[in-house]
Amino acid sequence: MNFLALIQAAAAAAQPTAPAAAQATAAQAPAAQAPVADAAAPVAQAAKELLPQASTFAASIDDSFLLILWFAVFLAIVVAGAFAIMVLRPSAGTAGSTSRALYRWSAVGAFALVAVFFVQGARVWADMQVVPRGAVPVRVALEEKGWSFTYPNGYVTNELHLPIDRAVKLTFQGASEPYTFAVPAFRLQIAVPVGTRRDAWVQPTLAGDWEVRSTVPSLRKAEELVAQATVHAEGGYEKWYQDISGPPLDLPPVELGQRSYQMRGCTQCHTVDGAKLVGPTFKGFLAREHRMKDGSVVDPSDDYIKESILDPQAKVVEGFEPVMPSFKGRLHELEVAGLAAYIKSLQ
Amino acid sequence: MNSSHSIGSTNPGAAAKPSAGGELWFFTQDHRRLAWMYAIVIGLSLVVGTVLAVGLGLQPLTGHGTAADAESYRRLYSMHGLVMVFLVALPALPGIVGNWLLPERLGVDEMAWPRMNLLAFQLLLVGCVFFLVAFFATPLDTGWDFALPYALKSNSSVAWGMLGIVFVAASFATSGANIVATVITSRGAGRCWSDLPFFAWAMGAAGLIQAIVTPVLLAALALLFAQREGASDVFASSGADVRFDQWFWFWAHPALASMLLAAIAVIGDVVGEHGDRPRGASRASVLSVMAITVFAFAGWGIHVLGRTDSAACDAAFSALVLASGVPLIVLIVDWVTTLERGEARATTALGYAATSVVALTVGGMAGVFLAVPGTGAHLQNTSFSTGALHFLVVGGVLGALLAGVHQLWPRWIGVAAREGWGKFACFLFFVGVNLAFVPLCVRGYLGQPRRTLEVVAADERLGWYAVLGAGLVVGALTLAAWNLVATLLDSRAVLAKKEAD
User: Fold this and answer.
1) Which among B271, B352, B275 has a CA at the least distance from the CA of A92?
2) Contact B365/A68, CB-based, under 8 Å?
3) pLDDT number for residue B268
4) pLDDT digits (tens, 9 = 90+) for B361-383
5) Does B346 touch chain A (CB under 8 A)?
6) Fold (topology level) of A136-244
7) Which residues of B touch A122 (CB under 8 A)?
8) What is residue B424's predicted lDDT score, i.e. its pLDDT?
9) Which residues 119-158 of chain B have a CB within 8 Å of chain A?
10) From 3.40.50.2000, 1.20.1250.20, 1.10.10.10, 1.10.760.10, which CATH number describes the A249-345 domain?
């Protein structure tokens, strides 16, 4: 950590306007672009249109990139031009040895440039290493069926939801094969070697949907390596999080089940008034016969309800299609028990 | 084919050599004949690697989506990398230009150990045979760098590929040791270190690196093989992929540097011939070569940037790799001032040398992007790194090879290649290299992962530009080859006429 502090101190000395990691915001991004020459503005603008700057890191990394890019273009033109001039000029130069001073200053100049590149890049990199306090924690893993993102309330989904202008701590769990968590719009790529755990953070600054991808070559299907990161506009993440958090778990079971039924999207397919939607109604659950597609009949027990919620394809009711998604990992076990109690209470 | 002595009769060193007339080419220890044989094997490998590259470039634009497409793409890029790295990029300059030119530049008749020189070539041939087996059995699909953990469970010809590399690597080590020995033993009788030509310094440094680091590659492959066969579990625990990459890049990073040093040797020689310093070496250029050699051994960790828990190590490796750009800048200054003091003519050889210097500059700067921690983390595993590597290998190494061959051609066959066609091919090569690999870098910055069929960033136009550029490179290589072969055929008539006269 001392080393990182050293880097940050050096960067701060080199660039007094550099924002501290935790306070970096989208509003500060223009200040960080100061080193880029005015002539670079059209290129920088075009680059932003091709790849939006959607995190606090993006502007700094683009600055670093453009600084090196302009020097690379300049150097390539100078080298090509020098060779061309040497063969096209009318007469030869003066014989003799090259001044030592020319070599010395070339080396000093090159070293100074390299140092500037290093400090410019190390500044944002050092910021990336230190997770700010109070960051929203999200656990990330690339599992057998694709990405999984686990939120503080235990809710698991295959889409990453992020608040705008708030730091998010991403904790990566290594799998049996290496993967990277790459979001080009954030200029963020975290490598997760086999079986290791890594921490990183990001602070989104632009609402929208951004692509998450693992860039490590893999035998998996391409779609399993891709996910979507949704950055919610102001207040959107809080609403989404409230929705997925479900009801308070200390409610009586039937009431908890009823709230879960309303908040977890069950109403889209199952009614409590006997009407038929995509799935069977819950009305009269205990009273009616439960005949399955394969002809078998099951008892309307707690276990059957629990199985239908967590592994809905295991038993499919006659007359309905197996379209229900699994809620495994998305509901607290008290919610599942509450739903069972609520469904059985409906006469 | 004539013996090298008859077709290379303009070479002043040739007359001093014993006749090799009745000797079978395959068993020759003559460094010039070996240079010819390297040229044939490497030329054929270049054709194979280029055909695979054309397939690679076209496949994402013509068909993707099925598992079979993805599998054939993996096999294409793996075999392309294997052939181009191990049979073209690494052996080309020491094998062809080094073999021919090093004794001549040092003023000796032969390499220090002629038998080892032959052995190195024969080991390369054996490696070729195993690569062919790997190609025709079940083509390798792990990438040329044997990425873990897939290399442990792949059902392709991993073992054959590894066996081929063992022989090819042994060839590099043998050849490298021979080059170093030739440089060292050529001194004496009034010649001291400061009298050594630049070509010997740079080619000697390349040979030294190959001789030292190759055992590490062999050890890494042995461990990988043992793990595949269940005899070891060194790559079984967490972080195994990073551990293997540390082993592999401990060899590969210096090996790539040795390839660039060989290119630098040839560029320096061509520039010296066109400037005011034929065969000479300035103190600054020698120190630069030494610095690049030292940095080459210290930069492997940049290939696991951000994959270890040590921020200090990441920063140290980043600083070391960036620092290796300083001596390259000094060398460029040295070349330009050398040309400035001479009466440089616009020859094909100098054109390729300039193309190579520009490509090394662009590729080197692309390496800066990858080595700077902030941008490097964003660009790892993207097509940016593929573009950077190709600038160095195709533009830098292949450009230097063409420069060296065009420079040596009159001494090889007695007749120079046609300058007009040569310059036109050189122009196509320059445009093609930049048109092919700049789009790769741009797409990488926009997030396009490397080694995937899916086009996920920017629009497909960039892909078409890259294919067009690659087409120009192929066209330029074909034109250059035709020009060289045509003059080779012409030279027989010219020499016969001279003898008749």
Assistant:
1) B275
2) yes
3) 94
4) 999 999 999 999 889 989 988 99
5) yes
6) Immunoglobulin-like (2.60.40)
7) 315, 318, 372-374
8) 96
9) 143, 147-150
10) 1.10.760.10
